[in-house]
């Protein structure tokens, strides 16, 4: 069945609009991925539909209060099977492709998006399994981070990519950056396509791509290379 992801957010249209196009839009149309949103404002109990309040101890900004958020979260978590509840924030564990692949294997996800200065810590302690950051910078809310996570998960669903191999060849899937890509024209004002790619020698092409991936990783992201278990061929290529 489809992987289901529930998102608790004050801006459901922000999530929906982010995921309408391309591979992940198609995955939803194909029934491979089902994204549902829950707005805490719909669970507010006063006539102003209040979802935030001033921070205890003073200071700038507002904090998302427990009441409406907890009610929305409980509805999002409701349903069959276990759920994993993730809060998106810069304080979280950094997202990696390995983590994305783990999320894609299930169980079903509930994503909590914060706005303002954040969410009352007691709700996080009570209802959240893990906190995830998409990088060391501050967004105005968790929605774009949630959309990033859903996009990365969605494209890994079986049948989402037209060519199953393209997920295996992604940057990071083997711990390395991707190799360069070319298409026609093979000769042009901006230069020529590397001849090996036109040789028809599939073993040579595979070796060249591997070498390019290794070279780019070595130049641009030596930190990745240090953490990657290289196979014998890659070690030999690096030593050449
Ligand atoms: N919310 C605000 N900034 C964020 C970030 N960098 N990652 C995840 N959620 C966020």
Model description:
It is a single chain. The protein has 240 residues and is of the alpha/beta class. The protein folds into 2 domains: 3-154, SPOUT methyltransferase, trefoil knot domain (Alpha/beta knot); 169-239, tRNA(m1g37)methyltransferase, domain 2 (Trp Operon Repressor, Chain A, Orthogonal Bundle). 38% of the residues lie in helices and 18% in strands. The chain is built from 10 helices and 9 strands. The chain has helices spanning 12-18, 22-29, 66-77, 97-104, 121-127, 143-154, 165-168, 202-220, 222-227, 232-239; strands spanning 3-8, 33-38, 52-53, 63-64, 83-94, 108-113, 130-133, 187-188, 191-192. The strands form 3 sheets. Strands 2-1-6-5-7 form a 5-stranded parallel beta sheet, sandwiched between helices. Strands 3-4 form a two-stranded antiparallel sheet. Strands 8-9 form a two-stranded antiparallel ribbon. Helix 1 runs parallel beside helix 6 (143-154) and helix 4 crosses helix 6 (143-154). The radius of gyration is 22 Å and the shape is elongated. The N and C termini lie far apart (48 Å). It binds adenine.
């Amino acid at each position: 069945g489809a992987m289901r992801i529930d998102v608790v957010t004050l801006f459901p249209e922000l999530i929906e609009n982010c995921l309408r196009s391309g591979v992940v839009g198609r995955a939803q149309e194909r029934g491979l991925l089902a994204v549902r949103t829950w707005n805490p404002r719909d669970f507010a109990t006063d006539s102003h539909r209040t979802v935030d309040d001033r921070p205890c101890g003073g200071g700038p900004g507002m904090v998302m209060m427990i009441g409406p958020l907890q009610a929305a979260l409980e509805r999002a978590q409701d349903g069959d099977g276990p759920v994993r509840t993730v809060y998106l924030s810069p304080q979280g564990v950094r997202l990696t492709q390995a983590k994305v692949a783990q999320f894609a294997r299930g169980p079903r996800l509930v994503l909590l998006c914060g706005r303002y200065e954040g969410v009352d810590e007691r709700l996080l302690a009570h209802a959240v399994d893990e906190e995830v950051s998409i990088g060391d910078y501050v967004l105005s809310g968790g929605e774009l981070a949630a959309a990033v996570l859903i996009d990365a998960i969605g494209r890994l669903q079986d049948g989402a990519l037209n060519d199953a191999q393209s997920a295996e060849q992604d940057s990071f899937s083997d711990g390395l950056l991707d190799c360069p890509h070319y298409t026609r024209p093979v000769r042009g004002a901006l230069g020529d396509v590397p001849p090996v790619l036109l040789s028809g020698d599939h073993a040579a092409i595979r070796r060249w791509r591997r070498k390019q991936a290794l070279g780019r990783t070595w130049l641009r992201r030596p930190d990745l290379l240090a953490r990657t278990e290289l196979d014998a061929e890659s070690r030999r290529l690096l030593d050449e």
